[in-house]
Amino acid sequence: MTYPWHLYVMGAIYIIAGIMHFIKPKVYLRIMPRYLPFHKPLVFLSGVAEILLGIGLFFKETKNLSIYGIIAMLAVFLLVHFYMLSSDKASAGFPKWLLLLRLPLQIALMYWAFRYLKL
After folding, report:
1. N or C: which end of the chain has fewer CB within 10 A?
2. Long-range residue pairs from 96-103, CB within 8 A, at least 24 positions apart, any chain
3. pLDDT digits (tens, 9 = 90+) for 21-55
4. Dihedral, CA atoms, 52, 2, 74, 110, nearest 10 degrees?
5. What whole-number distance in Å separates Cα of residue 49 and Cα of residue 7?
6. Torsion sign (Cα): 17, 32, 98, 68
């Protein structure tokens, strides 16, 4: 079965995003909520998860599992987005309007993944 090209785009986006956790870990460490322990391992673990889930989208046997994983991962990442809205320090210098825009974007990304379950 051939999947639509945009499913492969989604997979590539998650793979690239996951790789960025290793190339620029400081970016992700800056936005880690203070209440979470082990910031550096969590940044790397989330990078590995994004890479594996992105790759999983390319194969029929793992596509649905990867979609559920992506939706769950994005739901967990919402905690980071809400944390960043909690104070100026937590915002890591990002403007509040941009942080607010990320919330519906996160929901849209979850919906985008969910749409591929029926394929």
Report:
1. N
2. 103/78
3. 999 999 999 899 988 999 999 999 999 999 999 99
4. 180
5. 17
6. positive
Q: What is the pLDDT of residues 67-95, one digit of tens each?
A: 999 999 999 999 999 999 998 888 888 89
Residue 64 contacts residue 118 (beta carbons within 8 Å): no
Show Cβ contacts of residue 42 under 8 Å, excluding neighbours closer than 6 positions: 32, 36
**Residue tagged 């995003």 (tokens):** 17
Distance CA 69, CA 85 (A): 25
| Tokens of residue 72, six digits | 């769950």
Phi and psi, residue 108, nearest 5° = -65, -40
CA–CA gap between residue 28 and residue 16 (Å, rounded) = 14
